[in-house]
Design brief:
415 residues, mainly beta, 5-stranded antiparallel sheet, 50% strand
Length: 415
């Protein structure tokens, strides 16, 4: 920050523990995976939700990374390289640095995703090219990985993994694979797992969608939402498949109209110069995220570069008045609102100037900001969340940069 006068400089030094201008760090960092770069760009998350480059950034790695996850105990970081050929293990220091490389573990099958058990004892890696799942145990003293037997033949090309909060179930999306092929096994596969041995105990398959693209599990593990590249109602918009979750059992939630378990994104309405209106249906939903308090769902539409906001039902409202929303059901947040100083936009919200290919999203730990990653722009767009309504407005600055305009960021992990 440029200090224009000595008084302001002194004031900032005195306020260093809370941050100049009343903005302080939350102690949480956001790690941006640069799949065509030299490692991770690291930002600190401020109390107002804005991102500021961390003093530990960049974190350079032996190969460009794709997906990174941290153990719940905060001691270790595991990430896949962009090619899905190797799994890297690092220690994580108290300031967030990836301090020491523990080892690198070759994986086959173009690994797509990884998750870590909540007890920090196991790592699961999806290998879609060979339709297998690799399981590793974590040495509790060193973080060293040891594969638990051979990779398990699961019969599904898993493009995304999600772990239940209890650690008793791993969910895998058998979505479009290879990407752009138009081929999908159209399923969510759930495995019951041993929390002590790590092995798979059972398999449950739920058919879903046409070309399912992304799986969102609410933070409390109670609800699951599956986005679809192509399945859409020509009037109501893209389909979102919603389920209540009980271990490996997924039960469709009462949806819109007569379609059990299906909700839709509303069209974006544009007011023309002559006063008429036109509408555009959101297209190509590729990512989504719920707030950490499980109140709102945000869907990222790459085709129309906008964001759709939903309220997640709690079973409140009245069936007599027609405003009852089943637990886990979705109701799109419509109409703009003003908090006295700024306007929070209606849904769907255009992701902003320079945002052309939004591809991933994350929510700040305090639920006050949404981060949307644009792979081709090499930027992370940041929005303020109105915590009373779920609506969004752009923060200032509207975006921050990944490693470079050509580093192809693909993932955001907060820790």
């Amino acid at each position: 920050m440029k200090r224009l006068i000595g008084y302001m400089a002194a004031l900032c030094l005195l306020a260093i523990t809370v941050g100049c201008g009343g903005i302080s760090s939350t102690g949480t960092l956001a790690y941006i995976s640069n799949s065509n770069g030299t490692g991770f760009t690291v930002y600190k998350i401020n109390t107002d939700g804005t991102l500021t480059l961390s003093s530990v950034s960049p974190q350079n790695t032996p190969a460009a990374p794709k997906v990174i996850q941290f153990s719940a105990n905060g001691r270790w970081a595991y990430f896949l390289d962009a090619a899905g050929a190797n799994l890297y293990a690092y220690t994580r220091s108290g300031n967030g640095e990836l301090a020491t490389k523990i080892d690198v573990y070759p994986v086959t099958g173009k690994a797509s995703s990884l998750v870590i058990s909540p007890n920090s004892q196991f790592v699961y890696v999806a290998q879609p090219d060979i339709k297998k799942l690799a399981i590793f145990s974590i040495d509790q003293a060193t973080g060293i990985l040891t594969q638990v037997g051979s990779s398990v033949q699961i019969g599904y090309a898993i493009t995304q993994l999600v772990m239940s909060p209890s650690g008793s179930t791993v969910y895998g999306l058998a979505g479009e694979y290879p990407a752009g092929s138009g081929t999908s096994q159209q399923a969510v596969v759930a495995w019951g797992i041993s929390t002590t041995a790590g092995n798979l105990l059972s398999t449950t398959v739920t058919s879903v969608g046409v070309l399912p693209s992304f799986l969102v599990l609410s933070v409390n593990g109670s609800y699951m939402y599956v986005l679809d590249h192509t399945a859409a109602d020509p009037v109501l918009g893209p389909n979102i498949y919603a389920f209540t979750v009980n271990g490996a059992t997924l039960t469709p939630i009462a949806g819109q109209g007569n379609a059990a378990g299906i909700f839709h994104e509303n069209p974006a309405i544009t007011t023309n110069q002559d006063g008429s209106t036109s509408s555009t249906l959101p297209s190509n939903p590729v990512a989504g995220v719920t707030t950490n308090d499980n109140r709102y769902l945000y869907v990222i539409n790459q085709g129309t570069h906008n964001i759709t906001t939903f309220k997640i039902g709690t079973g409140s409202g009245s069936t007599a008045t027609g405003n009852y929303l089943a637990p886990g059901g979705l109701s799109e947040i419509l109409g703009s609102t003003t908090d006295g100083t700024s306007t929070f936009a209606a849904s769907p919200l255009d992701c902003g100037s320079g945002c052309t290919t939004p591809s991933f999203a994350a929510v700040a730990p305090q639920n006050n900001a949404l981060y949307v990653l644009d792979t081709f722009a090499g930027k992370i767009f940041q929005y303020r969340i109105n915590q009373s309504t779920g609506k969004l407005r752009a923060l200032s600055p509207a975006s921050v940069s990944a490693e470079s305009a050509t580093s192809d960021p693909t993932w955001i992990t907060t820790r």
